[in-house]
Design brief:
By secondary structure, the chain is an alpha/beta fold. The protein has one domain: NAD(P)-binding Rossmann-like Domain (Rossmann fold), CATH 3.40.50. It is built from 10 helices and 7 strands. A 7-stranded parallel beta sheet has the order 3-2-1-4-5-6-7, sandwiched between helices. The radius of gyration is 25 Å and the shape is globular.
């Protein structure tokens, strides 16, 4: 028997709908007040969550390839003054391709701060390479400079052999050298250009890893530089994104292949980072907007990436980690 005060399903539904309209009305009133105040008040500043404040605005600058860091109007932050070394890589030897500038330079500095000697492989940016060497030696470690083209398998073998000869061994290989050039359309990418991107970014990693392998002992590691565009794609970096996706697959496959040898293989997938790579690619007006679409509303500085490379190289930190692609992208939901 129906009790007094009971409501029918129809009445209950109407009551709920009325409640929803009330919530909507309250929010509409708040939205209207914000609109009348000028679109929601002052524009929020890009968040700063690191050890020191980082630049939020980049210069509208375009430079010639291969890209000289010394030519940038805004010098990248790579020294990581708040990072204190604790001998995580003490006594090790590392080879870093593309180590003359950008992420590679920042990694070289922190590796030295953690106790490793460093070999820098680079194309032809001699001034940048000398500056990197100066900073590595200021950390109290040795640094050797090896110019050459990673597309050349023979050069990669020579670079590894020289590293082992002069530094005594090889414990860490960081594959980081890259070629990038944007294109509006697939039709703009010639086979010659596609081949250049592929051979630099993929073959270069393959050649260096193959050359290094006979010298890597148990506890050694290989770290590859991937990219957020290898995870998400990029409409104007068709060939470059393709190579970065290949690098991620190469990382996971090589990790499985080498695990029984006690050699770990991982990758870091950076988002937009202020290095010579982008201003040597994009037009000046686009360079000024580089990184603005991330959740941090800015590009990263190299020193915000380099600790990830220390973490993955250090047996005390990542001894149980292999085959991962670590995103450091400045945004939520990169993978």
């Amino acid at each position: 028997m129906k009790q007094q005060g009971d409501t029918s399903p129809k009445q209950s539904a109407e009551a709920t709908a009325e409640k929803h309209r009330g919530i909507q009305k309250q929010q509409d009133q708040k939205d209207n007040r914000k609109a009348q105040q000028g679109g929601g008040g002052e524009q929020q500043k890009p968040p700063q969550t690191g050890a020191r404040e980082q630049p939020t605005d980049l210069p509208a600058q375009h430079i010639a390839k291969p890209g000289i860091e010394a030519e940038l109007q805004l010098q990248p932050q790579f020294q990581a003054p708040n990072y204190k070394g604790s001998e995580k890589l003490q006594g090790m030897a590392a080879l870093i391709t593309g180590g003359d500038s950008g992420i590679g330079r920042a990694v070289a500095v922190l590796y030295a701060r953690e106790g490793a000697d460093v070999a820098i492989v680079y194309l032809s940016e001699h001034e940048d390479a000398e500056e990197t060497k100066r900073h590595v030696e200021a950390e109290g470690r040795r640094c050797i400079l090896i110019p050459g083209d990673v597309k050349d398998a023979a050069f990669c073998k020579q670079a590894v052999e020289r590293t082992v000869k002069e530094l005594g061994k090889l414990d860490i290989l960081v594959n980081n050298a890259a070629f990038q050039e944007h294109a509006e359309s697939l039709e703009d990418i010639t086979e010659e250009r596609f081949d250049e991107t592929m051979r630099t970014n993929v073959y270069g990693y393959f050649h260096m890893a193959k050359a290094a392998l006979p010298h890597l002992k148990e506890g050694a590691s290989i770290i590859n530089t991937g990219s957020v565009v290898g995870l998400q794609g990029s409409e104007q970096l068709l060939d470059y994104s393709t190579t970065k996706g290949a690098i991620h697959a190469f990382t996971k496959s090589l990790a499985s292949n080498l695990i029984q040898k006690g050699i770990r293989v991982n990758a870091v997938a950076p988002g937009p980072v202020w290095t010579p790579l982008n201003p040597a690619d994009s037009p000046a007006e686009k360079v000024a907007e580089f990184g603005k679409k991330t959740d941090f509303q800015r590009a990263a500085q190299p020193e915000e990436l380099s600790p990830a490379y220390v973490f993955l190289a250090a047996p005390a930190c990542a001894g149980y980690i292999t085959g991962i692609v670590l995103p450091v992208t400045g945004s939520v939901g990169a993978i």
